[in-house]
């Protein structure tokens, strides 16, 4: 099998594990709250602690991947977040749970920037869109799988043991990655000559004036209009999507008064819709790029996705039955996930050998949106008596992002 396809498979499995680990706490919300004596708003801060840790370490971990390579950085961050997944199980009160989830988020932060850096070195440009789509579709499949499976696992083993099982799986992946992966295809001992030459001829090439790996500082990043565009639009995207990871399960369970396991199956649907949106968008990105529409291969899928997401959020409000709400939220998440492939492809386009820190900076802004969602939803619910305000704010952010993408140009490479 070609080594770059094994790379995609390995990062698919990692992305799947990353989101299983992430969603586990939302699924275990009630037993954790009961055991630790937490309120809904306190649990919101627990979810937000993860997102803040995740956001704050995005750019630094991306810079490390650019400088030291994704082999050592991914091995380290997977081992670190797996450890803190396990430590979640021994949290004994509100403060200790906040600390464990903050450190867990900080550990996970290096995953996607490191994968982006590996994609820059290993994946031909014309395969980039679908590769990123496959990576992110795994996160949705992983999150969806937890919705019906983890409730049964938690009821059987308890929430603490469930986190320990996930820790062991993460350690196993880190060991395999360390021994199999090489930072560039030229270093891999078993890659065929044919595949190596194909990758070298078709991957993104550095141009005169492009920044060397690890040489872009925060001044250059913050001085780039393209970087700010990516940050704001990704904030809008995560504001919509993180709802499904944090509050969707308890929201539909409590709003429509359905059973624990039944809520898990309903909560699967938007996440699976997101996986389909990822694959469709990745295919569209590569198809448009191959036709010569290099700029619109990034713009069009993202703009269409944000428009669908805005409509889905607005239409989900006030649905009398859980099925209607889930259908419209599935459309919203399908649209939100259409943004991922063009966004990450765009960051690799403008970042080049600094794809790690550029994509990490975008993801930092996006996850500040996630952190706000985790605490905004319960507070807005308490202040307004319903979810309408939250969904309308999300729709407005999506509409703004459609406009922003009109100015996106992947040819504006960031210079040091």
Features:
mainly alpha, 19 helices, globular, Growth Hormone, Chain: A, 416 residues
Per-chain topology:
Layout: H1 3-27, H2 29-36, H3 40-56, H4 58-68, H5 70-88, H6 94-108, H7 111-122, H8 128-157, H9 159-180, H10 193-202, H11 218-222, H12 225-246, H13 248-255, H14 260-290, H15 296-316, H16 322-337, H17 340-351, H18 355-384, H19 388-405
Q: Strand pairing plus helix content: what structural class?
A: mainly alpha
Ends distance: 38 Å
**Computed Rg:** 20 Å
User: pLDDT average, as an integer?
Assistant: 87
Q: Count the domains.
A: 1
User: Helicity level, as a percent range?
Assistant: over 70%
Going by CATH, the architecture would be Up-down Bundle
Question: How much beta, percentage-wise?
Answer: under 5%
The number of E-state strands comes to 0
> What pattern of helices and strands is seen along the backbone?
HHHHHHHHHHHHHHHHHHH
How can the largest sheet be summarized? none
Stated plainly, the CATH topology is called Growth Hormone, Chain: A
Flag low-confidence runs.
none
CATH level-4 homologous superfamily? MFS general substrate transporter like domains
Q: What is the name of the CATH class? A: Mainly Alpha
CA-based shape: globular
Please tally the helical runs, counting DSSP H or I stretches of 4 or more residues. Answer: 19
């Amino acid at each position: 099998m070609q080594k770059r396809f094994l790379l995609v498979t390995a990062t698919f499995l990692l992305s799947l594990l990353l989101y299983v680990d992430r969603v586990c706490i939302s699924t275990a919300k009630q037993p954790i709250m009961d055991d630790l004596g937490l309120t809904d708003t306190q649990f919101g801060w627990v979810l937000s602690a993860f997102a803040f840790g995740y956001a704050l370490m995005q750019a630094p971990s991306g810079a490390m991947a650019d400088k030291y390579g994704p082999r050592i950085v991914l091995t380290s961050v997977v081992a670190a977040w797996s450890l803190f997944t396990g430590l979640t199980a021994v949290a004994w009160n509100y403060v200790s749970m906040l600390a464990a989830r903050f450190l867990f988020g900080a550990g996970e932060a290096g995953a996607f920037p490191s994968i982006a850096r590996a994609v820059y070195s290993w994946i031909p440009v014309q395969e980039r869109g679908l590769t990123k789509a496959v990576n992110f579709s795994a996160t949705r499949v992983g999150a969806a799988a937890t919705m019906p499976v983890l409730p049964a696992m938690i009821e059987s083993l308890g929430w603490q043991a469930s986190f320990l099982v996930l820790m062991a799986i993460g350690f196993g992946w880190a060991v395999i990655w360390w021994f199999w992966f090489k930072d560039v295809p030229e270093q891999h001992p078993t890659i065929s000559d044919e595949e190596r030459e194909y990758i070298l001829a078709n991957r993104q090439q550095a141009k005169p004036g492009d920044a060397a790996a690890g040489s872009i500082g925060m001044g250059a990043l913050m001085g780039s209009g393209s970087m700010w565009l990516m940050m704001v639009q990704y904030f809008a995207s995560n504001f919509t999507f993180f709802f499904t990871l944090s509050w969707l399960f308890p929201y539909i369970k409590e709003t429509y008064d359905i059973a624990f396991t039944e809520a898990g199956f309903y909560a699967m649907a938007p996440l699976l819709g997101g996986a389909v949106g990822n694959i469709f968008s990745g295919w569209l990105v590569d198809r448009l790029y191959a036709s010569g529409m290099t700029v619109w291969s990034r713009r069009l899928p993202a703009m269409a996705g944000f428009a669908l997401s805005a409509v889905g959020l607005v239409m989900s409000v006030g649905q009398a039955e859980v099925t209607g709400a889930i259908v419209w939220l599935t459309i919203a998440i399908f649209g939100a996930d259409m943004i991922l492939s063009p966004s990450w492809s765009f960051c690799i386009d403008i970042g080049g050998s600094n794809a790690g820190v550029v994509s990490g900076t975008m993801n930092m802004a996006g996850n500040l949106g996630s952190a706000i969602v985790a605490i905004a939803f319960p507070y807005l619910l308490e202040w307004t008596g319903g979810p309408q305000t939250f969904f309308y704010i999300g729709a407005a952010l999506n509409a703004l992002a459609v406009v922003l993408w009109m100015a996106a140009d992947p040819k504006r490479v960031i210079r040091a």
